[in-house]
Design goal:
This protein is an all-alpha fold. The protein has 17 helices and no strands.
């Protein structure tokens, strides 16, 4: 069996493996903090649900603008390694800011800076990853990278849970945040030392890459617009954790709930990416979005603790089906010399929708009710799946 697994992964390049290890370590740090952050904000720092939505929305929208600029910059300079490593380093510098936060706006500043770092690295990294493997297996390669990233999201909450078991109580959340500084530092060192630069292929290029929406393929532009619509219903997962707490899941088990989600993500990312290579990226994305709609409808109707556990486990299937496929479809629709810019526009659409999505969700929860908030998310996902089926027409590979 070991030989069969090794054979399956032999075409995953060394560059992809190094980037995947870096993402794993960085996500260990991120996910040590993230599952505790909503409760830390609301119960320790006194933030409202609406403010949680504002923080998450601003963080992701800020990140999206940086993703566009860094993607374009990496095309123009022909270098994708430098912004990738710099972005991870900037995020690592923000971990201590969360640990010393004394007011909600301190966390807002830390999340803002952290997402700038994520924005700087994401588009160049995705373009570099796409250039590092055969186009026929990009779904699997992105799935492998996402699986490693999500494996980090398994280990991070497990470390948090062990620390809080050893030192129980919200007063020790800050200890968790300090310890999270270590894996990010290791990730930056590994990436700086072992990532290999792959310059963009200039074939078909005419002049320097421009930051132009119109220069991109019509089908790619349709895809980006549909992604924007889907993301309007894809609010921060912080609300899922708050929903679980309201259903009766104890605070100290929230990291374990996050582990369940990321375990499902991890074991489905690679098969999901492989299916995208065989069935087509578009078809697999549509299936994943339908799954998302059903899960959000389930959160709207949930009324027991076990519903939260079951829904978090099933929610991971949506990620497994879509994370690799969505990124691979970008590389199918954009030539290599402007692929960083294309990934920038792709991530920009997600980020620009993230703020209104999370703000709207928080408002609906506060003013109307949790059922309407989750039902609205399910509706946007269903609409996006229908539009994807009719509007996005990638060329046959």
């Amino acid at each position: 069996m070991f030989n069969r697994v090794r054979e399956y992964f032999k075409d995953i390049s060394a560059n992809v493996r190094v980037m995947s290890v870096g993402s794993f370590l960085n996500d260990v740090a991120t996910e040590m903090i993230y599952p505790l952050l909503p409760v830390f904000l609301t119960k320790v720092l006194g933030a409202t649900f609406g403010f949680v939505g504002v923080i998450e929305g601003i963080a992701e929208s800020t990140s999206s603008v940086a993703k566009l600029l860094s993607g374009w910059y990496s095309d123009r300079r022909g270098s994708r390694k430098a912004p990738t490593v710099a972005g991870y380093a900037l995020s690592g510098l923000t971990r201590p800011l969360v640990a010393v936060a004394g007011a909600p706006w301190h966390v807002l500043l830390a999340r803002f800076t952290d997402r700038i770092g994520k924005g700087v690295r994401t588009s160049p990294r995705d373009a570099l990853l796409a250039a590092s493997v055969d186009p026929k297996i990009r779904g699997k390669a992105f799935g492998f990278h996402r699986a490693m990233d999500n494996a980090g999201a398994l280990v991070g909450p497990a470390i948090s849970m062990l620390i809080l078991w050893w030192k129980p109580g919200m007063e020790h959340y800050r200890l968790v945040f300090w310890i999270a500084c270590v894996p990010t530092a290791i990730a930056v060192l590994i990436l700086w030392r072992w990532i290999r630069e792959v310059p963009p292929d200039k074939k078909g290029a005419s002049g320097a890459p421009s930051l132009s929406w119109s220069a991109l393929d019509r089908s790619f532009r349709a895809y980006v617009i549909v992604m924007f619509i889907f993301t309007l219903g894809n609010s921060s997962d912080a609300f899922l954790l708050l929903r679980a707490e309201k259903l009766g899941v104890p605070d100290y088990l929230l990291p374990l709930l996050w582990i369940v989600l990321n375990f499902t993500k991890t074991i489905t990312n690679i098969p999901g990416g492989g299916l995208a290579d065989r069935w087509g990226r578009k078809k697999v994305i549509i299936i994943g979005w339908v799954v998302y709609s059903l899960i959000y409808a389930g959160f709207a109707a949930a009324g027991a603790i076990w519903h939260a556990w079951a829904l978090f486990a099933l929610y991971g299937i949506y990620f497994g089906m879509t994370e690799g496929a969505e990124r691979a479809l970008v590389s199918d629709l954009a030539p290599d010399h402007i692929r960083g810019t294309a990934y920038g526009f792709f991530h920009l659409s997600v980020g620009l929708a993230a703020f209104p999505a999370s703000a709207l969700f928080g408002y609906l929860w506060d003013k109307v009710g949790v059922e309407i908030a989750f039902g609205t998310g399910a509706g946007f996902a269903t609409l996006a799946a229908i539009l994807m089926a009719f509007l996005v027409r990638p060329a046959k590979r």
